[in-house]
Backbone:
């Protein structure tokens, strides 16, 4: 296997049919990467809609039943319940099958999921970078991963063939795959994803505390800056707690940046303010180049 | 005059031909609100391009020359140099003419500009809510204000006819006009605009302090949250300083919101975190309804 090679699964099970699970299913269908796809999730109504929309071929009433006979299992539930799910499906997993996930936290979770796999079942952690404030199947689309980065986090214990298949699968969906240590992943995403979520929630809460009616005056700036504060509180509670140490460390750095701006304001230090803003502008502009 | 009535100026002068100045000029041209429009700005190259693109009919080498014979003067320079400009053009302003601005700070600035006007020249403060991280004429468009709010800040001294003309002018560009006390304006925009800018700059600076290379891993969340950190440092330095007291007050509220999230994280308080996130989600979702 590898870049450009075709990967194929006889039967895929997708556990959790939300934005990412459903989009993965759609992308795999468009690329003809499987013979059949079975879903499972907490809400039967959602599963029925996914079947109706052709996102999954069928669904089962339990996670264990859904993974039966599957040579690829995609765990796409919120990260807080991933380990519970993995334990539940363990006995039902087929020998030789591959299990991957789409969680925004890796680190210790990858080791835990790996250790929960029965013998001859291979876990490979993944994180396609395509989340948004949306979380339902109505926003799912087969090209969600086109050009998006997907981090894959092999460990020393990872099966080489399983790793190559998971990499090929994501590449086939259009993602740009990068392999990375699971703990390094969490350091990076604490900074560029988890911290911005905390800040966006806090920004809205500050408006709520001072004068909530003012939101009717918000323009594009406030809307952009706080868009991800519409994200699922349950999902982000779990991500925040599971990446707590990294997150607290980067939030301390953020607090220092805020304090410097506040100090300049208090001291009417125009040069200092402009210096802070210019430094940020330079780095921010480099992203869109 | 008033809603629905046509307003017309023989000659308009627009001082500062950036995103807002140029878009105002274009919108007024599309609505045939003037006979002629003359520009002035710091960079002749920019003025030549504005003339070439049909944004202005012609330009002058000084602000005083540009306002000669104008019955409407639009001050569209960064707020930090507005008062200087107003003083400079004072002697050249025509009796009976109207001067308005487009600045993001009102409050004391409105009183100052008002007091700088010669006799029989009427100043009316405006703030069309249509800024972005862009600030040049290349992003200017005649429909920038369609559906956007425009705050107009009359004072006890405001000339009634001049006020009605300025309101009609903004309504003709497609804006939804609201009249408001200038100091109330600054309280509101400290919260929904100026604070988010401080936070966006600080977020990028935190990434810069911890690990700047990580920005290549940023997804839509980081991009949205920090988009306005690409805004002009000079412009935002002045806005921040001119609305310093309100800004420091709302930044204290933001600090309290951040501290509560950090406290929950430190204490592994999942319920507390979810409560904070849910509160923010609810208010944020109400904006897009």
Residues:
């Amino acid at each position: 296997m590898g870049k450009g090679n075709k990967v194929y699964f006889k039967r895929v099970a997708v556990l959790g049919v939300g934005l990412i699970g459903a989009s993965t299913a759609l992308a795999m269908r468009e690329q003809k990467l499987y013979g059949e796809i079975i879903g499972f999730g907490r809400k039967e109504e959602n599963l029925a809609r996914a079947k109706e929309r052709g996102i999954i071929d069928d669904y089962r009433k339990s996670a264990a039943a859904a993974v039966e006979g599957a040579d690829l299992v995609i765990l796409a539930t919120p990260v807080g319940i991933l380990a519970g799910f993995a334990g539940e499906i363990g006995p039902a997993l087929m020998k030789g099958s591959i299990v991957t996930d789409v969680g925004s936290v890796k680190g210790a979770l990858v080791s835990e999921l790996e250790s929960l796999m029965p013998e001859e079942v291979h876990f490979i952690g993944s994180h396609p970078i395509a989340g948004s404030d949306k979380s339902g199947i109505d926003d799912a689309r087969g090209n969600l991963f086109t050009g998006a980065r997907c981090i894959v986090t092999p460990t020393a214990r990872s099966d080489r063939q399983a790793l190559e298949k998971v990499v090929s699968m994501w590449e086939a969906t259009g993602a740009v795959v990068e392999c990375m240590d699971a703990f390094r992943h969490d350091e990076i995403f604490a900074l560029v994803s988890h911290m911005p979520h905390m800040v966006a929630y806090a920004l809205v809460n500050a408006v709520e505390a001072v004068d909530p009616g003012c939101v009717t005056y918000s323009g594009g700036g406030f809307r952009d800056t706080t868009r991800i504060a519409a994200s699922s509180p349950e999902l982000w509670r779990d991500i925040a707690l599971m990446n707590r140490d990294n997150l607290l460390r980067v939030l301390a750095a953020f607090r220092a940046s805020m304090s410097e701006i506040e100090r300049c304001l208090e001291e009417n230090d125009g040069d200092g303010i402009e210096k802070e803003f210019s430094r940020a502008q330079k780095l921010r502009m480099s992203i869109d180049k």
Notes: The longest helix of chain A spans residues 182-210. Residues 184-287 of chain A form a domain with the 6-phosphogluconate dehydrogenase C-terminal fold fold (CATH 1.10.3660.10). Chain A has a mean pLDDT of 95.
